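User:
I would dearly like some help making sense of a protein record. Take your time, and here it is.
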Amino acid sequence: MARLADYFVLVAFGPHPRGSGEGQGQILQRFPEKDWEDNPFPQGIELFCQPSGWQLCPKRSPPTFFVAVLTDINSERHYCACLTFWEPVEPTQEAACTEDAVEREEALEEGGLSPTALAPAGQLFAPKTLVLVSRLDHAEVFRNSLGLIYTVHVEGLNVSLESVIGNLLTCTIPLTGGSQRTISLGAGDRQVIQTPLTDSLPVSCCSVALLFRQLGITNVLSLFCATLTEHKILFLSRSYQRLADACRGLLALLFPLRYSFTYVPILPSQLLEVLSTPTPFIIGVHAAFQAETQELLDVIVADLDGGTVTVPECVHIPPLPEPLQSQTHSVLSTVLDPELELADLAFPPPMTPTSSLKMQDKELRAVFLRLFAQLLQGYRWCLHIVRIHPEPVIRFHKAAFLGQRGLLEDDFLMKVLEGMAFAGFVSERGVPYRPTDLFDELVAHEVARMRADENQPQRVLRHVKELAEQLYKNENPYPAVAMHKVQRPAEASHLRRVPRPFPRLDEGTVQWIVDQAMAKMQGAPPAVRAERRTTVPAGPPMTAILERSSGLHANSARRLEVVRNCISCVFEGKMLEAKKLLPAVLRALKGRAARRCLTQELHLHVQQNRAVLDHQQFDFVVRMMNCCLQDCTSMDEHGIAAALLPLVTAFCRKLSPGVTQFAYSCVQEHVVWSTPQFWEAMFYGDVQTHIRALYLEPSEDQAPSQAGETPAHEESPSALDVASEQRRLWPTLSRAKQQELVQKEESTVFSQAIHYASRMSYLLLPLDSSKSRLLRERAGLGDPESAANSLVTSSMAGSVAESYDTESGFEDAETSDVAGAVVRFINRFVDKVCTESGVTSDHLKGLHVMVPDIVQMHIETLEAVHRESRRLPPIQKPKLLRPHLLPGEECVLDGLRVYLLPDGREEGTGGGAGGPTLLPAEGAVFLTTYRVIFTGMPTDPLVGEQVVVRAFPVAALTKEKRISVQTHVDQFLQDGLQLRACTFQLLKMAFDEEVGSESAELFRKQLHRLRYPPDVRGTFAFASGTIHTPGRPGRAPKDKGPSLRALSRNLVKNAKKTIGRQHITRRKYTPPSWEQRGQPPAEDPEDEISVSEELEPSTLTPSTALKPADRLTLSSLVERACCRDYQRLGLGTLGSSLSRAKSEPFRVSPVNRMYAICRSYPGLLIVPQSIQDNALQRVSRCYRQNRFPVVCWRSGRSKAVLLRSGGLHGKGVVGLFKAQNAPSPGQSQTDSSSLEQEKYLQAVVSAMPRYADASGRNTLSSFSSAHLGSHVPRARVSTLSNPMAASVSRWTAPRGKWGSIRASGRSGASSMGVDVGSRLAGRDMLGAPQPNGAPPDPGFLRPHRAALYIIGDKAQLKGVRPDPLQQWELVPIEVFEVRQVKASFKKLLKACVPGCPAAEPGPASYLRSLEDSEWLSQIHKLLQVSVLVVELLDSGSSVLVSLEDGWDITTQVVSLVQLLSDPFYRTMEGFRLLVEKEWLSFGHRFSHRGAHTLAGQSSGFAPIFLQFLDCVHQVHLQFPMEFEFSQFYLKFLSYHHVSRRFRTFLLDSDYERIELGLLYEEKGDRRGQQVCRSVWEYVERLSKKTPVFYNYMYAPEDAEVLRPYSNVSNLKVWDFYTEETLAEGPPYDWELARGPPEPPEEERPDSSAPQSRRRVVWPCYDSRPRAQPDAISRLLEELQRLETELGRPPERWKDTWDRVKATQRLEGRTDRHGTPSSLLASSALHPRRSLGIYLREGPVGSTLSLSLDSDQSGGSSASSSRQAARRSTSTLYSQFQTAESENRSYEGTLYKKGAFMKPWKARWFVLDKTKHQLRYYDHRVDTECKGVIDLAEVESVTPGTPTMGAPKTVGEKAFFDVKTTRRVYNFCAQDAPSAQQWVDRIQGCLSDA
């Protein structure tokens, strides 16, 4: 029973003490005057009576009523019912408060209190409040009771107010039980008080329904979520009662949780600052104060009158987890608006009566009750009972709950579980033995039903209505009986004039009534209502709130099987099996089921808490544990870490006698171990297990369930059941027994605390405690992202110590003392759990003393383990594979263990192309004097024993950067390195843990030292050359004549002397007068600028006058490539005189033989005949780097010449063209040079045959046309028979491809053309451009064209206005600079060899980055300019290319022009000559552009030569039959021009090469085994062994000029950039390629049929071309396929071949005067091209060359043995049976002894090197081969002896025998010399193979 009312208070208006207009409340009287012992009088009631403030009012207002709620210090709520009425103010009061009357009146009107009737003028009214204070919430009873008191006063009833109040204060009612109690206050009244059935369910009346009506569903749901997640909520309304109801409704929705923060439904205006409190609250404020709430930034404001909820921007309210949010929303809308479902029906059913407001209120609450049951379903399975006696202590395992509900990511539930309300829920409802209510039943028994009803709204609604009935019945257990009878005042009674104010009551009377009642109650027996306490049902185990079927682990049964098999293999010692299964297991362990399975399986192998393993088993177990733990978050929501915790202290291995290493020392690197919440949950779980065991009978006691696991269906009672039973028995136990149980429990908790202190020290102390690092203990402690991304396993136990990086370790702030940090961590834990578990303070002190000792002991143990583990040999590391080295290559750094990680190329990882995952691979990186090499094996054991090699020359390194390795490959990796090379290789490596940071740093330093040697002599090409091969004789001490070194020194000395001399004489130089300028320079004897000091100008040319050293110089110079080429082109002979007859236009000048004029030019130059050497010095000054124009090529047909030079200086030709006035007499030296230059250009023009004369003779004899006919496959040369046709077409169709070549229209139409340069820059295309970038249309040149075109840089030639009288013309073009090439190359490198996988997979991102690089646009521009120059030259005009410094783009263009114009340069020999002449002799700066030395480091790598080779590759692709060399040759040069393996591409000019003594030493006799120093020599040697550099499609047209398409759409990305072979590394160092071993001779089968050796070929591992047939076989197979498709019978190849040859001869005879293009234009394609087989005149008749290798052999290497290649193609060869199809290396007549008993016979023998055969025929012209001896089977060739029947006339030495694997052949030659020759030839063939 409880008092209905505790206090009655009368509060009246009183003046403010400070005299302000505001009044204040004064308590006039309170009853009882003494406080109750159990309930003191609440302070501050007077504020709450008038929340808006005490104010006088000018009119009478009707009485008001509301209930305010006060919360005391014990969180008890006091309900203050306030009834306020107004009385006239007494004069004394009025006088005190008149000033503010008007203001107050206005304020009250604003407040909405409108007067009903006016009192006498000037009359004021003061409020007076009757207050009832109670701890019970019976608002209606309070309203009636206070109303009755007011009525008695107003109506003047004949009842004593004292007795009414006394009765009210003495009235007692039951709290719960559903009973009805009738009370009367003695004024003829009667009230029935209804108590609820249970007090745990809140009583809401209609408040929830009203809240929904006011705010709507969405807003209420927002407020609901905000309350649960502890946000601040403020209600606004003009009605106090509405505020109180809304707050009460919101609280009712929270059931079964209780709101434990500030709760003030009506907040007085004086206390508004409370709204700034930092803690959450629910507060109601009168709407009049809305303005004062605007500034609150983190408060959610609900306006009840306006129906809005305002959420500030900075507040995020997490919504309910789906699908609960949407389900709840739909059910609420159905309850609130039942007609919604029927609104669309055509024939709506008759209206069902809607629920009453009270019923609707309960239905809405039922929806939320269901919601909580769904949210918290299964919560009892996650309760840990820590103590049972004296009071239950219960903890909730939050992580397990979230993990098993599958709501780990859910923000809402996470916050709810962390909130205060839920903590109260656990402590209140977690108790196992207590009264139960509706929620307990619902969460235990209705879960299955709710899950089943989920998708059926009608069934959900039915359930809601059932629950609502129960809630309604709780509040209204009996049918309502209208028994109330309470007097009310008459209508408008407040307006009547009350005769007297509310009287002062007699305290004594009231007190006496109260005392009487107290005395009665003491006498009566206490009405004790026993609570019905029961064991709370646990309900079904929890399930995920939303079943997420993860497709990734759908086949989990199979995965679990793999895990079990692997573990059994480990424990049965089947390590190889386990190793194979391990990758699959590690992948499976990503799934939760597999991790659980692993922990269960490992538990089976632990006996008596200990399992000793051998090293390999230990490694495997630790590795799997780490894999399990790496995906655990800090919360360990799935209990994996909890299940592993007992195992890591059980599995161990013996390191040495007495030293054991446990698994925990290898699994510390995980965030979960440093999370206090994890340890607490583990501790409480273990304590629960032990407490349960304490009370279970021994018979029931089974093995305690594992910590953290919640058993689903156990026969034995759960811990909560045990606790419930113990709580039931507790009152029956004796005091002593109770004390004993309390002590037992306390000591159980204490012993567990000691145990956990040890466990924590195991997992927190690193193995090497000297490393002052530890796991994370700083900010981000529980952050799942900070989990270590590593798998620490190593056979080397000590490795774990190194594996802590500073990221993951926490450096303790105050001290780096590991032990101290661990002790503090453990002490904090011990404090928390022991205080919560009720451990005595003595025990707790003892623990604090123990912890440091435990930690110290463990550190000492670990020291021994650490020491022993360092001695362990690393096991299971793959053996390091030594790379093959080149002769002269030496290892600088031996193998450092690394992992080669996959980069952005997907081939190695089995990406789009399929194939195995070769990367990541485990192995070592080696640094040699020549290369960086990685060799290793894939870490995926399923790939098999495949060797992975990736290497590149040190010199090719372009970028080296440190990387932090994100992915763990196999073990925890420390740091990584990414090396990128310009040979398109990328090494992305991570160093193994055994490689210290010092070693890694040393590797970087050595790499840097080798990459950038201080001098070129430090490069590999020089260093390797100094190594003498053993057995090679040293050089003779004395040479005849001056030695090469002496020659070099002499040359340099002379050059320096000359240069110095020139410097002196230059100051004395006086320019000649204007008159003298017209004379030829040769006749000026006073000219002091001569090339050499000793020579007179007149005697410069004859060689007789040269000194011996100079003569040697010249003879050496003559041997250079350029001279050989000049001779071939007829530009100058080198007989007794250095210059040719005067009739020749050009001559070879030795002016630069001392490199005095231009250091970067060759020694001999071609200049016009008319220019004397001494004038060249002056000309050279006008050009950058003194590179004046010299002739480098002459067209054999049009006799036009190609010249090259550097760009012009500021003055020079430009100045020359700009000068309009005649020069004045004293001109400067520069002007004289310009004049020299003008003469020089004039001389060049004069030296040309006059093709541009008026008659137009042969003017346009040969232009190209891209579209002669649609069937022409490539743009070829074609002839226009009528020379004028072209010019006519030019004039009739002015919209040609190029328009006018010239910038100034010479024919007066100056605006007709646009300059070529801007067209080349792509700015202006006249007419429609041809779609494929084809060469120009025939009529693109004017008939009157210049004799010389100067192609210069647009920027340089700006503003030049050519003089129409000049014979030359400027073509300004825009060219890209070297820095643009560098930038473009960097982007190309990143596109082709990306460092990491692209964000979006697929070709799109690759193509985009390729386009961004603009590499192909640069190739396009180069080809475009080159084709333009080719056209000009072919039309008979000469061209001078004068761009930049003359050694980069100039070289590219000039070389391309010669390659396109002259078929000679498309042969092997010609291409070599071209590169030697244009690139080496003319001084392309290979060392500078390749950054070969330390000096070039800052400038970086510029791929000028590579760009040229790419252009050649593009042309090669378009004209595959025009080149003698293969694509592999180009790739080979691309690789080796940067590799520094050969000396060819070192240094920047011939001058520098002479200075180092390089240039002529190659001519010496250095054959034998010496290292090749020249790339050409190497190519030559290699070509003798393998035809890899030859193109089998080679069938050149005669004198063909190539005009390739140049548009970007016609260009292909060179596969040199994209392909790689991981089997052997780059295939360009031929010696390094090792094939599979050949079977021994005797094992080879006898049959001559080719043996098929099938092997799987993977892209990027073995290169694909190796698996494809060679060119001939492919073409023949293609022909065969076409025949089959067309249904033709296959013909014998011989017949086809004979027919083709006959056709060719016939065509050759009939159309001898025709042109190649007419053949091409004919409908039949050229027969030689269709077969891809070419005829070439050889030493012995016409020979047919056949291919042994594909023309794509770029990726192939010698590992596909030549033997296999021969056998595979032999079937195809056998179809060619003509005599001409043989490659006859040597032939002649030999006598051969027949088989047994057969005579000797003369036969015609042919030795065929190509097929590796010795064939014989009956006679020389016989076409049918009679027999073949395969040289592959020959074992030896020895001198023989004559046998019976041998020819008599020959000597004994003419006999020889050839022994094969099958038999011995006896041969006899004509004589001994020829026999010897045959023996030599056969042996030569054998050795070559």
The mean pLDDT is 75.
